[in-house]
Amino acid sequence: MEEGAEGKKEEKETDIRRLQTYPLIRHSDMNDEMRTEAMELCVTACEKFASNNENAAKMIKESMDKKFGSSWHAIVGEGYGFEITHEVKNIIYMFFGGNLAITVWKCS
Predict the structure, then answer these.
(1) Euclidean distance between CA atoms 90 and 29, whole angstroms
(2) Residues 41, 104: Cα–Cα separation, whole Å
(3) Which of 4, 49, 71, 102 could join 55 via S-S bond, C-beta 3.0 to 4.6 A?
(4) 40 vs 25, 26, 62, 86, CA distance in Å?
């Protein structure tokens, strides 16, 4: 019977992880169009580079520079705090995959 209980426990943990795979915007002052594009870009980059946060951040930064002009910055990771100066209407702070945080902001 113990094997069955372990199997159920493992199944339950997998279900919890699945529930947390949607993007959750914690803070943003971007307009709706920019926020949607930035969120979709962050999700795409984090899925493409699931095992390399540095490459995900690089992809986000370069794409935002091309789309919305230069001087964008991106942080992708777990367990970090930040205090930054940014241009008004140009920041998004979100979570993806449960514990992965993404911060993207513009500062010239």
Answers:
(1) 6
(2) 11
(3) 49
(4) 11, 15, 14, 21
- The token pair at 69 is 């002009």
**Half-sphere exposure of residue 75: CA atoms within 13 angstroms, side-chain side:** 16
Task: Quick: pLDDT tens for 69-79.
Answer: 999 999 999 99
Q: Order of strands across the sheet with 100-106?
A: 24-28, 91-96, 100-106, 72-77
pLDDT in tens, 17-40: 444 578 999 999 999 999 999 999
Find where tokens 């094997």 sit: 3
Q: What angle do CA 66, 99, 43 make, to 5 degrees?
A: 30
CA-CA distance, 4 to 31, in Å (whole number)?
50
**Bridge partners for 94 per DSSP:** 25, 102
Global pTM? 0.80
